[in-house]
Fold this sequence. Notes:
It contains no helices and 11 strands.
Amino acid sequence: QVQLVESGGGLAQPGGSLILSCEVSGSANVFDDMAWFRQAPGKDREAVSCISPSDGDTYYADSVKGRATISLDGGTTLWLNMDRLEVEDTAVYYCATKPRWGGCTEVVPSNFESWGQGTQVSVSL
């Protein structure tokens, strides 16, 4: 069983920056594909970014492309660096993992098996 714990969420202002982290423990495989999703009130959960250590591939949603960077530190900590924050970035952010097969070709919630509890990000003046 994989345990995921997000941290780093909070209140930020438009144009600012924020760094989210996800601690991975338990039976996690260092070669598992890992991703960030977010969900705003009344909306579906959507992919933000994905990294595939086995394939060496990354994915970024159009809404955050050029503003976000995903990275994995030693297979135990997943990071999401967000710059030039927008009000539309307000959501609960989740980290998730799935078996390494497939890479980041199809980053949808149904493909991911383990999830963190989520961390709230609020972008407002």
